[in-house]
Each structure stands twice: as structure tokens, then as C-alpha cells.
């Protein structure tokens, strides 16, 4: 009997990282892929990206979770509504294993419902740190509810084990999102310019800025400060991608929209570029600016710089191509100046990405296919001090 693997995806970035793994599962004669789409995928505000998924995969179920508010109360209500819906869907689909990724609030709801429904859970991207965001607590919580773990590097694998997870169920497979870089046929410069209907310049920057969700009401001030620093650059094209559905994301997006309207000669904004256009852009920009994980994970593979602002990605393993700075204008401007120095440009030519060279999708699929699910729900705590499972 085929093993049914149920994938839950709630954001454009997450789906991009899932894509090749989903293809691997779908093409395997011993596996059945089930797809649940939720979160930003179903929102017109964030581009209705479920339509892109439908071009490649059959969607089994859609779970509406986003409310009109992006306040902490609104997000909490979304989480509660989502958990109800996921429980009902699992009862209907009867998957053998749930596969989730990362640290978003809708994925927490999907995982919590699966735990109560006694559904085995596999988690990708555990063990990472994002000290400036609520994502970290969510990620570690998902780790504790999960039964199998796929980490991006050995340091993260050890952190998952530190949380009490059985080392035999924690697999270092590399960063899932890097498969796109090596498997997609990326656009040429002219094809990319045509796809965004905008010309690149002497200098080109990709800007993605998300709320720092553990800080109170700082989003507006921070995005305004960033825009002031960027506005001082000459001969530059600024490509903005909008913030996700975190609390206070809308104020960032509206501020960017207003800036682009006032500066149409040098700035363009997209709700979502999609994986092909986004990764193609990284061939031609000088850096990713903001606080997105893509500046940490994908950018080094293109040997471009990253200006990582504030605490959102604090404590993640980083390549030497990452310039960290505070969120004040002086620090951002200083970092932009460093980016364009001869020394820095020379250094990044030989950068090696610490997150690997791709290939994780096949590794994960083969493990999901082979693991024994008998009695998997009765987790034991691994005691790091004594290197043993408590109770054994």
C-alpha cells in the first residue's frame, strides 16, 4: 500500500523550498502526495499564489486562515481557526505522515492538530535561530511535536538533539531551498528585465523587509529609515518584494507602495516574484537588503552580498558575504558603502555557502519512504548529558 505523505504549505517562500521535494514524492511509485494549501497562498493581498501551485500539483484541500487584521489578536484568532480546519481535513484525508517546514504560525496550527490526531510528523528546518522573531518559539515547538527532523546543517542537527530528540531520527540533509538554484533554468538578464517590465541599472538591489515580531511598533520607523538610506544611492534599481503576513506586515507594504509611486524611475515592487524570477534576479543584483532568510541561505550561492538589518536573523549561521547592521540610518548607509568597496567585492567572489550545494529533496524523500512508522508516536526524551533515551 502506498504511503500517503501530506504536505502543508502556507507561503510563497516555503512552497519554493518544498517544490522539488514534492516532485520527488509525486513521482515515486511507492508514495502518494497530498497537498494542503493555506495562509498567504489564499489571500489576494499576497498574490493568490495557490494558482501557481495548481499549475504543478493537485491541491487536495485549502484552509482559509488569514483574517482582515494582522494584529497579534488577529493572528491568534487565525491560528485557532486553522487548527479546527486542519483536524477535520486530517480525519478526511487519513495521511500516513504529515510533512511541514519552518516556523510560521499557520504551520504551528497544522502541526498541533496533527499531534492531537495522532498523526506522525516530519519537520524540515528545525534547530535554527531567529532571535528577533516569534518564529523561533514556533519552530522549536514544532520540533517537540514532530517525530522526524531534517536539518540544514550539523550545527542545527545538534540543536534539535539538544531539545531532547532522538539522534536516530534527526537527519542533516542540507538546505532544501537550494535545489531550486541548481535545477531551475534561470532567466537571462534581458528575459528577467522583460519579466518585471523594468530595466536594471549600474547598481541593483533586492529589498525584502519583514516585521521583527518580538518588538513593539517598530516596523514603520524601521522601513522608513531603510528607505531614506536607499534613497541616497545613485544609479540604482531597487526591486522590492513585499512583507509576509506577520503582525505589522501591512504597514511595511503600504510604505513601500508609497515610495515606489514617488520613485517609478528607480523602484519597482512585487507582492511575489515567484521562485524563477526571484532566483533569476539574484544573478544580477549586488545584494539582498533587509532581514529575509534568503539573504542568509540563498544569496551566498550567487556570490552576492547581504545587508542583514536588525535582529530577525540573529544567530543563524552566516557566510562571510553577510554584512550585519543595526536598523538606524547611519548603520545601513555604512553597510551599503561597505558592500560596494573593492575589498568586499573581491571577497565574495570566493564565498562558499555553508548551507550546502543542493540535493536535499531526494535525501528527504528516500528517508520518508524508508522510515518505520510503527509505534512512532510514543516519543522518548533523549538526555544529552547521559547520551541516552530516558526510559531505556
Report on this model:
The mean pLDDT is 92. The radius of gyration is 21 Å and the shape is globular. The strands form three sheets. A seven-stranded parallel beta sheet has the order 3-2-1-4-5-6-7, with helices on both faces. Helix 3 crosses helix 4. It has two domains: 203 residues, Glycogen Phosphorylase B (Rossmann fold, 3-Layer(aba) Sandwich), CATH 3.40.50; 164 residues, Rossmann fold (3-Layer(aba) Sandwich), CATH 3.40.50.2000. It is built from 15 helices and 15 strands. By secondary structure, the chain is α/β, with parallel strands linked by helices. It is 40% helix and 17% strand. The relative contact order is 0.13.
List the helices and strands and how they pair.
Layout: E1 3-9, H1 12-27, E2 31-38, H2 50-54, E3 61-63, H3 72-93, E4 97-101, H4 105-116, E5 121-124, H5 135-145, E6 148-151, H6 154-162, E7 170-172, H7 179-183, H8 189-196, E8 203-208, H9 219-231, E9 236-241, H10 249-262, E10 267-270, H11 274-281, E11 287-290, H12 294-297, E12 305-309, E13 322-325, H13 329-339, H14 342-347, H15 360-370, E14 382-383, E15 388-389
Parallel strand pairs: 1-2, 1-4, 2-3, 4-5, 5-6, 6-7, 8-9, 8-11, 9-10, 11-12, 12-13
Antiparallel strand pairs: 14-15
Helix pairs in contact: 1-15, 3-4, 4-5, 9-10, 9-13
